[in-house]
Amino acid sequence: MKKTELAYIAGLFDGEGCLVWTTTARVHITSCWPYHLRDIQKLFGFGKIRMFKNEAPRRNAYRWEVCGPDARKFVKKIRPWLREKAYQADIILTAHKFPPGSATRESMLKNLKKAKKVDYGTA
Q1: What span, in angstroms and rounded, lies between the C-alpha atoms of 57 and 54?
Q2: Beta carbons of 118 and 46 less than 8 angstroms apart
Q3: pLDDT for residue 6
Q4: 78-117 residues labelled b (16+ CB within 10 A) or e (exposed)
Q5: What is the C-alpha to C-alpha distance for residues 38 and 18, in angstroms, rounded to an integer?
């Protein structure tokens, strides 16, 4: 992959992506335009795309999602270009190294939840 492609995907992910931890790392990007999601799926060779039908006048939304080791591969590839979600990415990349239920992992996952609750106020 070209660095410009990874930088573009990182920017898209910073704005429209989400990092979560259920029993493993999960990432997704949601968009009303499915074509760049298909490009991401093709470039990385993994992930699923789902469509969410909306009632008029809203458009349908699409979500590319991946979990587990593939989620970490994705995050690791785009990490150098992340800004908004860089801290969350670092948590995702590190948390899996600790055993489930360990104090370190639990603390990291609490920090991940806190990092998602940012109030930017008015610009």
Answers
A1: 8
A2: no
A3: 96
A4: bbebbeebeebbbbbbebbeeeeeeeebeebbeebeeeee
A5: 17
C-alpha span between 92 and 72 (Å, rounded) = 7
Q: What are phi and psi of 91, to 5 degrees?
A: -65, -45
Count of residues in the chain: 123
Q: In whole angstroms, what is the distance from residue 109 CA to residue 87 CA?
A: 12
**Coil, strand or helix at 83:** coil
Q: Are 62 and 32 in contact (CB under 8 A)?
A: yes
Query: What is the reported pLDDT for 120?
Result: 64
CA distance 32 to 25: 24
Q: What is the mean pLDDT of each run of 10 residues along the chain (123 residues)?
A: 94 95 94 93 96 75 95 97 95 93 93 80 60
Residue written as tokens 């039908």? 53
Q: Please give the model's pTM, rounded to 2 decimal places.
A: 0.88
**Residue matched to tokens 């899996």:** 96
Output the six-digit token pair for 100. 């489930």
